[in-house]
Amino acid sequence: MILLLFLLGINTQQSLAQENQLIEVSGTVTDQEQKTPLAGVSVVIKGAITGTTTDRNGKFKLRSRLKFPFKLVFSSIGFKTQEFEVRDIGNNLNIELASQTVLANEVVITASRVHESILKSPVAIEKLDIRAIRESPAPSFYDALENVKGVQMTTSSLTFKIPNTRGFNIPSNYRFMQLVDGIDMQAATLGVPLGNAIGPTELDIASIEITPGAASALYGMNAINGMSNLMTKSPFYYQGLSFYQKAGLNHLGGTGRDLSNLTETAVRYAKAFNNKFAFKVNLSYLRGTDWLSDTRTDQNPNNLKTANPGYPALNGSNNIAFDGWNKYGDDVLAGSNTVSVSGLSINGQPNQTLNVARTGYWEKDLVNPNVDNLKFDAALHYRLGETAELSYDYRIGKMDGVFQRGNKIQLDNVIIQNHKLELKGSNYLLRSYVSIESSGDSYNVKPLADNMDLASGGSGSAWGTKYKNALNEYAAANGGALTDANLAAATAFARQQADAGRAEPGTPAFETLKNTIIGINNWDIRSATIPNAPETGGAALIQKSRMYHVEGQYDFSGKTRYFDLLVGADARLYEIIPDGNSFVDFSRAIADRGTALPDGSYGDNIHYKKIGAFTQLTKTLFQDKLKLFGSVRYDYNPEFDPKLTPRIAAVYSPDQHHNFRFTYQQGYRFPGLFEALSYVNNGRVKRVGSLSYINEGLGYLDNSYTRASGVLFNAAVNADVANGADRNTAALENRGLLVKADLPKAAPERINSLEFGYKSVFLENRLYLDIDAYTNTYTGFLGQVQVDVPRGATVGSDAAVLAMLDVNRDAGQDRYRVYTNAKNKYRNYGTALGLTFNFYKKYTVAGNVSYNKIKSNEQNDIFVTGFNTPEWATNFTIGNREIAKNLGFSVVYKWQNAFLWESPLVTGQIAAIHTFDAQFSYKLPAVNGSIKVGGTNIFNKPFLQYAGGPTIGALYYAAVTFEGLLNR
Q: pTM for the whole thing?
């Protein structure tokens, strides 16, 4: 890093020391075909920072101190990029740009961190420019990512959408990096990328580049599954006042909520002075009614051992161990909300046991249907000579919504801020930024439901006693005994009696209790074993953090004789403010970690850091037909051993149309903050991070049984007791069913990736073809496993076995959900094909299809990894940007096949999706404006994207945009 600063300092001084005479170049840019002026054309001096744009009359003026000759680069969306060499001061330039329908010669930067043709990128990369975004039928630029080849979008909320590529999808996708102008958009403690929530506005987005698959070799540990790079408009090139207004409708039937309005407003203003100083300001606000998660599928049917398979009368709707997809406080599979009602006589058999779930609450009654998203950003840019630009950016976003991590989180007034300072030259970059995160008034839906039940319906033992007494009461009044004939009715009566006095949705008591609980940041509830806990328990999610990042890179291309050389380095420090519940000061005694100190804090701030550096060599051979890439990255986190990440690639271009590529790379991912350092008490199951020192004094790594084996063990014990055995004796006889967890010390995830690809253009640039295929091998996949620690006993002892009985749940066990590494290797592979064809005048058809498959392992792992990706997915688009003067349209058909979604919260089958999106747009050239009317899922066929997620229906919208007003 010191070397980089030295080199950057030299280069900046050189740029400031230019003493050449100031010269001015001016001219006009027109459309070659229509002979009309072109506004907004980018005019840049090649190899320098200096540039400008044409005004509405196609005119430009550019001042420079560079020596003759130099080249000007003219580029505009929909036209072929053209270079012009300026040799001396002369007459005004007259430049004509030729139309280009299929943009196959786009320049990208994300694949190699340097500018290169998209055709010759060493890895798969997709790009959405301004025109592609405007012509997409998606209601926002972020939604347009869903139409990109190989991208799987997961929608948790109107304000919260996460892209993924090539498998292993989760709603909080921390394996897919999102950058906005170089800033990592991941909210540190929430552990989710928020590119659409706090990123660019609709008026400020310039382009989006997406790299499917591993990108860790150049971008570090978070890019193991790919990345998106969102780039905003420069205030030097896009000036004036711009305005955007969108109005829409959703919930048109089948989504569980009434017809609702959606509005979004954005304003942008940018101004440049003498091509030296420029600034921009953006403001946007979105408000709407969120999609609703209300699937009532039972993921614990009565045939499972976690229910009551011995009593068919309790099948289906009579299941007393119901565990609903979108119900909380009834979590049977997690083992946190069950009551064992024993000592019953059923069908004349004594000592029978029923596994009963607490009633719980539906998600729709616990979350806020209304969401909003406020975004503001401002930037100052100053050009230091011809080849350097210094900028400061400030960005703040406030958002609401719901997202799914281990449980559902209601985000409320979450605020993320970014400060960025950047110095950028033609061959170097130095960037530093800080991200500040506050979870605001957010809360966790799971402890809310748990504590609502416990506070108003009684403890598990008290509720179980009421339930058992009511069963016996019903039996006495209906034939004198419990039998298959009356068991369903008896259990329904027992639940009604046990729930008497429970806070019910829609009542003042419910709202009062809910508001009390979500305001308390202690998820324990007062009991004999936790006498100092809040009487009602809590559910507040209070997370605050700061992330400091600095990075730099220097491109030695042109300074080395035999190859091009790029070097870079970065350092990052996370600082977490402990709250005593989600994150704690581990230097404090276990019993004190949740107790505030006299100063109100919960101990010293927690730090988590890493440093990294990379170098990349490129070499062209055989008259530029073969380009070789080699890079290696070094990353170090003090909690783990250092890691080296190599990448080698080759691009072979026998001519300008055909490009073959091959890439092999490794990648690593350090655990995120929540995965590494969390310490959350959630429904009597403590969720703990993967760092081994957290285990000290708790014993879950080396003195625990797996929860899955505990389920089998208790089912066998209950069966023996039902046949007359003593419970303790039965437990000791079935001890062989208990499996010691023996969790490993956590290590970073690792991926080995091999990729082949081919890109080409045919038919005079009217047909574009892009094919890629890959295979990945994951080692040490990070996930969660639930284990039970016998309190005060050693695994294997009689006391430990007896502690695992469900009837001893409160007194004998501590349960943990632990982030740890999978024991199996996981191999997945796939391919993707993209075609774009300008088949007639301005009519274009485009399509893509992707295939992703995971290879199954012979043995089950300690937790479910969740590939969570359809094998087949496709998009097909037809459109014409000018079917009539100023009028364009596009229609997209999207399909994906059914697939299995697996997660610790919900596992279930996701049905196939068939949807149509469409839009019409009309340009208003006189005012540099446009009107866009369209819809997604226009036939309103409600669908789910993931198990436990919201039902998504049609969204119809109309948007008006005016750009570049007051620009003189």
A: 0.92
